[in-house]
Amino acid sequence: MPASGGLRIIPPTFPSMPTTINGIGTHYYGHKNADKRTGTCRSCGSHVMLESYDTRLWFVVVYIPIIPLGRKRIIDQCPVCKRHYVADADHWETQKQLNVSGALERFHSDPTPEHAIEAHQQFLNFQQLADAAELRREMAEKFGQNAKVQAYLGSALNGMGQVGEARAYFQRAFELRPDLPEARVGLAYDHMRSGRLDEARQMLDFLEKPGAVQLYSLESVESLADA
After folding, report:
1. The CATH number of domain 96-226, selected from 1.25.40.10, 1.10.600.10, 1.20.1640.10, 3.40.350.10
2. pTM of the full predicted structure?
3. pLDDT for the residue 41
4. Closest by CA position to 7, among listed 104, 105, 75, 82
5. Cα separation values, 164 from 16, 148, 203, Å
């Protein structure tokens, strides 16, 4: 069952996996700056511990590295299917510095809910999870009366597999704004996980109205139908 919203890494396309034939081809060597997070593999759908790390791609002969092909950042490698995203490590680091520092500067100079969400999303995009958790706590307190911020934080936690913590944020958002679609969808998924399908449908009743398909994704209704 997919989460509502959540972690949205901005990766390159899935690469061709390094391959060798009779020991000749390409292979990764090295494993540095590793980060892990709980999430759902976007290739095989397994809910697992995804890993990201720095490595180097080599051309190999009899599995002996011969020609270096560049430093790479492996992103969200699945332990089940081994698929992952890949980026040039230097480009990844440059973009991380530019995007994260830029978003933080905007938030500190103008601490609006929109800038807070942007900064938090950049932390998630570049997997700075400790920084994201610290900012989330600040946002929860500073914007405790803002339903959209509360729903966003619920979605972010859902995307990281922390559905128990997400529930409180969705509930708070719903209390503040019972009509907020993000809050209702988040709570609907929570009800589905617990088998409370009638309650889930009540949360999604706004998607049954004429014209809803023009305004909203119906993915949550499809999940309810499957359940």
Report:
1. 1.25.40.10
2. 0.77
3. 84
4. 75
5. 36, 19, 18
